[in-house]
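Take a specimen:
=====
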Amino acid sequence: MSNKTMTITLKTFYGFESVLADELIEMGFSDPKILNRAVQIKGAWKDVYYLNIHVRCAITVLVEIASFDIRKEKDLYDQASKIRWTNWFDVDKTFAVKGAVYSDLFRHSRYPFLLVKDAIVDSFRKQSGDRPNVNTSTPQVAFDVYIDRHRVTVSLNTSGAPLFHRGYRQSTGVAPLNEVVAAGLLRMSGWDKKSTLIDPFCGSGTFLIEAALMAADLPPTIERRHFALKNFANFDADLWDELQDSAKKRVTGLPCKIFGSDRSAEMVTKTRRNLRGLPIGRFVETQVQGFEEARYDEEDGWMICNPPYGERMGDDINELYERLGNWMKSELPGFKCWILSSNKEAFKFVGLKPDQKHKVFNGDLECSFRSYVMFAGSRKEHLTEINN
């Protein structure tokens, strides 16, 4: 496999670009370029393999294979026809062309993908007399076409299914937190992977599992088996196996305490089911209880939660957030508390001034991720203590 330096683009969700860039720097990649919902770096195929196994805050890892300018619709087909598609996959593999178009050259946003699809099919026909089949839902090989006015970038999607398909989810609730979002929020919170972490609205356990995998330094995709890069003509099975074998698989404990609770016995059962098959499963403590029943011996730590955004099971949502704020003040002195919610009105009832606010998205919902630093005594006493 070639060690040639390539342009690698890692897609992420809005608001997590800087978080992903920091993660890449920690991994040893220099000068990450922050884009809109993406971060770009330089690297070789070994890096691409490594990223698919280890990166936590990216949705997809793309490898650029061509970039060119166009002036009219036909130019896209002509330029795409120059790409040696047979170098990337075999005729027996299914493929799809997807992406994003920001250009007034095309009257229909999906038409560029049809042009590239035709270029791929015609290229195979000319070289082998046969053509690969298109599968738009579950392709074995996917190409990403990004058009910004006159500039076209064609990339290989090396991940296939989004990387938030970790492989560990056995059970979920009605609206489970996305795994990449959870990992990004944990990093955004500044959690040091050593301090106690609690989630009093654990749902099906996404925060708990992502935190435990981070603390144990286990790959986020430890249970995932399918990656599109395995379908490429240049797939290096030996290199892939080498990187998989070198990844940490087992742990004898965690460097911190991680607790999760929920008043719903059904949700805690789902959390335990999701934890059961993971190496970190037995080190995460879970309990069926409402947040106001929870008591902790730790003097400090992190609380991170994703409480209901609207009425649930008879709750008055504003009252719920007021009770949450009171509980944080009385039971979590010394903790750094973080709340994710799309309900800006309900945030007012927490009764505390946030130290930080971050605009993020949970699915299609615009949310705010807010921190509250708790301390014993009055805020004035706390500030005086810091200044002295």
